[in-house]
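pls read this stuff:
=====
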Amino acid sequence: MSARPRERLFDGGAASLGDDELLAILIGSGRPGRDALTLARELVVGLGGVQALARCDPSRVPLGPAATARILAACELGRRVAASSAAGEPLDTPARAARALAPLLAHREREAVLVALLTRKHRLMSVHTAYEGNVAGASVRIAELFTEAVRRTAAAVLLAHNHPSGDPEPSGDDIRTTRDAGAAGRLLGIPLVDHLVVGSADRWVSLKERGLL
C-alpha cells in the first residue's frame, strides 16, 4: 500500500480505510523500526479486533498515554454519535430497542444501566447512563432511574443493561429491579415499557417478552 492512511483518507474518504488504517491515524507517530500502521495492526491482532479495543482497559493498550487517550476518546465519541443518530427512532418493539441500545452496551467490561427516554409514541428522545458498576454488577436506586424522565417530561422509559459475561439471561436481581421500576413508573405516570438485558450486540433478552415486566 503506497499511500499513507492520512493521504488515503483525504483522497478516498474515511470509509475507504480499513480498521488498522483508521487506528494508525489516531496513533500518529510510530516507533523506531515500526511505523504507526504496523503498531495499529499489532494492536488489533493482539486485542482480538477493534470491538475488543473499544471495551478494553487503558492499561491493556501498549501505547503512550496521548495515543491511548485519542483512541479511547474516539471510541466513546463513536458511541455517542451512534446514540444521537438513533434519536427520534421508534422503540416500539424489543427488536427495535435492541438495535438502538445493544451497541451502546455490548462493548462494556463493566455492568451499566441505560435509561432511554421516550415520547408518547415511544420515539427515542435521549439515552442516559444511570449507573456503571464493577465487573460484578451495578447497584440501582429505582427512584434515580426516573430522574431525567421527570426533568425532561418524558412520556415513558425503557431500561437496558449489560451482562459483561455475554449471557443475557436475566438474574433474580434483574427481575426484581424490573418489577420495582415498573411499579415506580406507574406511580409517577411514566410507564416502563421494557427492560433489555444485553449480552452482546446480537444476544439480548426482553423482560417484557418474558412476561416479567
Summary: The mean pLDDT is 85. Helices lie at 5-12, 19-27, 36-47, 50-55, 65-85, 94-105, 147-151, 172-188.
